[in-house]
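Two quick folds needed for the group meeting slides. Do the first one here.
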Amino acid sequence: MARKAMMTADRAERIALELTQNPKYKDFFDFCETYLRVLNKPETSGIDGVNLVPLVLNEVQRDFAQKIIDRWEAGHPGRFIVLKARRMGFSTVVTAFSVWLLLTNKHRNGFVIAHDNKSTQNVFQMAKRMIDHLPSKGQAGSGQAARMGEDLRPATRYDNRNELWMVHPQDQTKGHNSKFDTATASDVDAGRSFEIHVLHGSEVAFWDDPDTLLGGVLQTVSKTPDTLVVLESTANGSGGYFYDEFWLHYLGKDKHGKRVDSDWVSLFYAWWRMPFYRRVLPKGLTAEEFLRDFADETLRGMHFEYGLHIEQTYWAYRCWRDDCKSSWSKFKQEYPGKPEEAFAFASSRVYGEDQVKIVEDRYRMAPVHRGAIVDESGNAEDEARARLPSWDEMEPRFSAATEGAETDDDLWIWKLPVPGRGYIISVDPASGVSAGDFSAIQVLDAVTREQVAEYHGHCETHVLGYLGVLMSIFYNRGFLTWEVNGLGRAVSTAVLQTQYPYIYMRVALERDATGDEQVPGWITTKATKPTMVMLGKQAVASAGSAPIRSGRLYSEVRSFREITKKPSRGQSGVQAGDEVHRRVIYGAALGAHDDLLMAWLQALAVLDSGMYVAGGDYSYLPTGETRTKEEVLEEEWEEYLQDFDAAPERRAGDGWQ
């Protein structure tokens, strides 16, 4: 086979000059339809068949493209976070923008990051196809442009699976000198080595570590106005980088309610914006009959809320019935009608949205107080002290947040301690570093299990133990429990240094080195975590047995997942008698946190178990009272005598000694 002739350097330069200087190529919409070819997708294009077709943008693609151009014309760089329904063609329109920008300018770099290898390759092949089917001198090319005799296909030096470098192979001064490169989201160092002018992040909600990856790659994006960054994704439940960034720029204010001034713009595209998500009613079935006899309350609500055409409503009905197994949760996960709906549903959620929404509507409220718990005794600041002070030396006081502060409102309070009331204080420790997980403390009424206070912040583990004791003293010498796994050992050391007496003592399966049968603190294991999750499910399902107040906690409830581990390679599926619970992993969604939730679940689990106090010298009652062993024995003896006097006929019978 004869080797393909190399393009001359002069021709490469001539093509580059034609594309970059001729104004006829500066109209993006015309360029798409005239020169770019894509594989047809009927649900996106509305054209039947699988063929190579001109890129005629659908209504959603055209709307987004116009928003990019509007930002550029206003002198702003394009920075977009896009939440969307399935199969709307966003990867196609962003890829087309990348190709167009690289072809009509010199020295530009496009970069694509997708959540897996297959998706990355799909986008890269789409870009190559667009370039490969540009009209070329002496070849038939594609469509009207080829018949006009235009010569637009650029010279390339690298043309492999991951990189396309449009420059003459032997003379890098000739041609565009533009690159189109790709990476997967698992490569956290991707894109750091060159300047980027178009960055496309695909399905960002499914990336493993978007904070680290984008924290690096966004620094390499050019600051000139005619650049573009698009982070687009379908939703993956609430919580995580994409969720937080979308709402930050969609609402235009941060978690403290302060307005945000930014180049970033968040956009949402509902399924009903797609012009081809329609289906004609069966012959003989009227719209009134369909809505009455086939549509349920959910579908009728969608029909009237969004003002749908009956063909759109029927499309939704068939998609729900045929493709989503008659599950509106599944439908709304894939085809949301509004942003709240998009994030509310995920197939692996532990706590169903319908039940969570009932509890939230009934109990969620803004904290009455924000601030911190401080020790006014001054003992902790004593430089001569090598240990934390004894608990009876501490003087906890609530300090309100400073007006406009962003760092001293980690503590939220809904109810201050009520005299004579009992409380449980539950601690979930973290590393304390600013970029890691948060440390969390939950305070619940021991009788009603209502959430009355919550701490969520970064602090060192020994400080967290100190804070837990202060909170416990503040809340009527409440019952303190903490997770002892891993970093919790440091919390244990801090708490035990204070000699605080009202702490949870679990029954150890095996005696520790001291021979004690009871050891302090809660331990989360593969055996106890399912119990914690189950108690949380019961609390959410009952809607009133453990009222949740915190919006931060609701966010973590929504992002909590249940994932079943796949069998290892070479192993068949679940066999009869297999312990399925060993395959289940519970945890937060990618990029989200579950510290507040785990502290809340720990409190429920401890309340549900037998509660013990250090040394066994006291028992702790849900009312907040404490009793010594002597008081317990005396009360039991009094009850015995009362029963004895009330049942003389049984004195000689069984059970009386």
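Then this one, please, same format:
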Amino acid sequence: MKPLDPRLLRYSAAARGYLAVTVGLGLTATGLILVQAGLLARILAGAATGTGVAVLASTGLAGSLGALLAVLLARAAASHGGETAALRAAADVKSQLRRRLTDHALRLGPSWLTLSKPAGHRSGEVTTLATRGLDGLDAYFARYLPQLVLACLVPFAVLIRVGLADWLSGLIIGLTLPLVPVFAILVGLHTKAVTQRQWRLLARLGGHFLDVVEGLPTLKLFGRGQPQAEVIGTVTDQYRTATMASLRIAFLSGFVLELTAALATALVAVEVGLRLLAGHMSYQTALLVLLLTPEAYLPLRAVGAQFHASTEGAAAARDVFEILDTPVSAAAEPGPQSARAARWPVDLSKDTISLSGVTLSYPGRDHDALSGVSLSIRPGDRITLAGPSGAGKSSLLALLLRFALPSSGRIEVGGVDLACVPLDEWRAQIAWVPQHPYLFAASVADNIALGQASASLGAIQKAARAAGAAEFVADLPQGYATVVGERGLRLSSGQRQQIALARAFLRDAPLLLLDEPAAHLDAATAARLDAALGTLTAGRSVIQVSHAPGRASAGRVLTLDQGRLTQVLASMPVRPAPALLAVSS
């Protein structure tokens, strides 16, 4: 780990003022150390020449004692102020990094969670990184960084002051001083690998624990709870072992640094004592050298100790920087500046979506998800896309949602390349119901109004009736104000699907994408949904993934097989309305 990672400053401009205060107070503390040693040497040397309070008063030592007390208070205030400013800087850094991490993760899109690494960035690992991991920066900024400033300032100031008072003692300190950072670097090289392993195990533990908690009902049902508990126990033991190894290295580092500093200080003390006995050095000069010598080594010892306390936060910050440095694909970018300036007048209620020889490949897969797909989706089309599991139906929806970018081929809307359309404007015209919709730990009304936050309760209720959700919502304890719990676990899978459908209906977007909307519904509810779709999709383009393509009452039926469009079946004509693409597996 670098002594000071410049990326932490680059990503935290608001904290630079606090860091400047920390450095300024460090300079103040350095000057106070020199003044304190000079006053204390004067007081002790003066007190040695006589006894009693009268002597103290006659020699002016009482004033020196008052000045010493003031210096001690000022040094304590500088130390407190430096730590407070550093904590403020840490709070700003953590806040900015979390905001940037969240914003960049949103821009990377949902596929990044599973495709960015061989094992993927699991949600639990990112959560651990953004919370427990970045909290470790408190130790980095509040303790390690102030000590690093003092370690750069105090030894040189002490060396100069001692050299002016006694050149021989200054020479000894100058020769032995580099030994402390040399040993610290040698120990730190081993610390880096151990700390990285410790952090990786913590991230893995957080991610796996989140997976287990979310899948607890399934694990209990299939009797796999105990094996997962054993996995968590194994990872916990590995994390404990790595933590103890890191602590052992920290204690070893402290012992080495303390021993080096003690031997160097003893060497100075011996030569000062011998020359003092021989009368070659005054008593006040000897006291000044002996008082300042430990101060030369103390900041270096302290920064070595604080280095170990800060490594976890620094390791987490490196992982954040790795994510922030991950390039965002063109599919997730808001669009080129030229396109944004031109404000392409794309209107999905009027413009045709054209796919020309589109191929989509995912990293790490040996075959294309889509291969040479050409398709036109006209306003008012109702298209059912059928095919076996893994045929590429959901990948086609991912392209239209711009969660993925075509590996080759071209997607145009009204003659304009889709990549040139600003992302926010494009998605504002789309309503999407995934096969496994996500509900937030909020009320039913809030979940329905997710894409239309200003919607009235009447509009929310109308959308719920259209999706067939009004009946079960009325039976909930607080109706539309009932909190559905995390991921909507208080509702059945069919009820969650109906809430997601109501959310899509309320959005009233010109393009509606439905990924098997009836997959979790009973037969009667699915039949009502099919009947309602004909009315609700009027004026929209609808692309629907349907498990049973025979239910589609109108439009075209498209068949995908191994990523290729193999068959197009005409169905009953439908009046111009939303384009409905239905995918069936």
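Slide caption for protein two: The chain has two domains: 6-324, 340-584.
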